[in-house]
Amino acid sequence: MYKPTLEYALQQDQEDKLSYLREQFHIPKDKEGNNWLYFTGNSLGLQPKRTQQYIQQELNDWAQYGVEGHFEGETPWLPYHEFLTEKMAKIVGAKPLEVVVMNTLTTNLHLLMVSFYQPTQKKYKIVIESDAFPSDRYAVQSQLKFHGFDVEEGLIEWKPREGEELLRIEDLEKIVEEQGDEIALLLIGGVNYYTGQYLDIKRIAKIGHAKNCIVGIDLAHGAGNISPELHDSGVDFAAWCTYKYLNSGPGSLAGLFVHEKHAYNKELPRFAGWWNHNKETRFNMRQPFDVMPGAEGWQLSNPPILSMAAIRASLDMFDEVGMEALRAKSEKLTGYFEYLISRIDTASIKIITPSNPKERGCQLSIQVKNADKSLHKKLTENNIITDWREPDVIRCAPVPMYNSFEDVFRMVEILKKLL
Ligand SMILES: *Cc1c(COP(=O)(O)O)cnc(C)c1O
After folding, report:
1. Which three-class secondary structure string do you get for the chain?
2. Would you say the pTM of this structure is higher than 0.70?
3. CATH topology for 56-319?
4. Does the beta carbon of 338 lie inside 6 Å of ligand 1?
5. Ligand 1 center to 374 CA (angstroms)
6. Model confidence over 235-256: pLDDT tens digits?
């Protein structure tokens, strides 16, 4: 049904009910004022134009009210994170009780492991993907060390088979079947950052739970990209950043999910601060610690409001559009991207992302023969922003909120010439 012409691409943009959203973002430009073709929303999402206004409002309240801004103004700071919860929960398919915005992703993973990685001498190993994001790998290694275990022995890698790029769920099944009695935790990227593969997290939860392992999911590349249905999946916990597909700005705060089944368990070990203490008595100040139920019970500090304002701006956009419409466009847009690339007659590149739309988000990972990095450099010189990931992949993410069919068409035309 796709056609390899500019007319077709323009026609698709015209028929796209979400095309109006592009106007609501700042699209980066080169020195001559030409728009970049931006394909790195998987790394840093673009800035919604409304973000400035949301942050300005909090600056104004701070100027006008000082400390009273915690209670005054349209969006008082004391309950500010609550303004984000419901919309964030919708994006990841969770109940509001299960979600909170706080800290950064790697910090949240550590706080979650404080509670959910409770190794014994026999059951202490952790499973990650062999291509896990480095921060997740380091986090897990340091947790093993912290508990006094040997990192080499404690870390199990779920690897693609010889000659393959993608992970097979049967192989995880086999690992857990054979070594489950020694495994305490599976910590898996829901959408792998390198290949773009979207794993079946419900099935992963089943596999892990069958052997009494805790299952945690890193959704950095999933949140705002796919619909993970966290609650129904049954995973124990999850965390994700908001500066990738959730367009909330560099280094912005992260999301955290703890499944309802753990919401009222006050016995879980956890670190504490005044922000996970019962809201009702928090300011009585001399009370013994009384933990809040749900995901809020993992907060420690009062949060940076300016960063949360940017998240609120973005979540309002997601809420107006809905993940369902975004996913529908995304499947079509990435499908078109794949179609155009597959028509290029060359042996120098290969898409390693699954071709089944149910097994990927918007990103396509293009493997370059002989790890020739110069192709990425040439794309950049031609105003096409993608990213290179060692050893040999160019990651490209047409994002349904702001990328167009025309972007995709023009990108592939240039790619074709460069090849
Ligand atoms: C982006 C990303 C990170 C980054 O972690 P921060 O704590 O936000 O710096 C970690 N893990 C994965 C899987 C990521 O994609």
Report:
1. CCCCCHHHHHHHHHHCCCHHHHHHECCCECCCCCECEECECCCCCCCECCHHHHHHHHHHHHHHHHHHHHCCCCCCCCCCCHHHHHHHHHHHCCCHHHEEEECCHHHHHHHHHHHHCCCCCCCCEEEEECCCCHHHHHHHHHHHHHCCCCHHHHEEEECCCCCCCCCCHHHHHHHHHHHHHHEEEEEEECECCCCCEECCHHHHHHHHHHCCCEEEEECCCCCCCCCCCHHHHCCCEEEEECCCCCCCCCCCCEEEEECHHHCCCCCCCCCCCHHHECHHHHHHCCCCCCECCCHHHHCCCCCCHHHHHHHHHHHHHHHHHCHHHHHHHHHHHHHHHHHHHHCCCCCCEEECCCCCHHHECCCEEEEEHHHCCHHHHHHHHCCEECEEECCCEEEEECCCCCCCHHHHHHHHHHHHHHC
2. yes
3. Aspartate Aminotransferase; domain 2 (3.40.640)
4. no
5. 26
6. 999 999 999 999 999 999 999 9
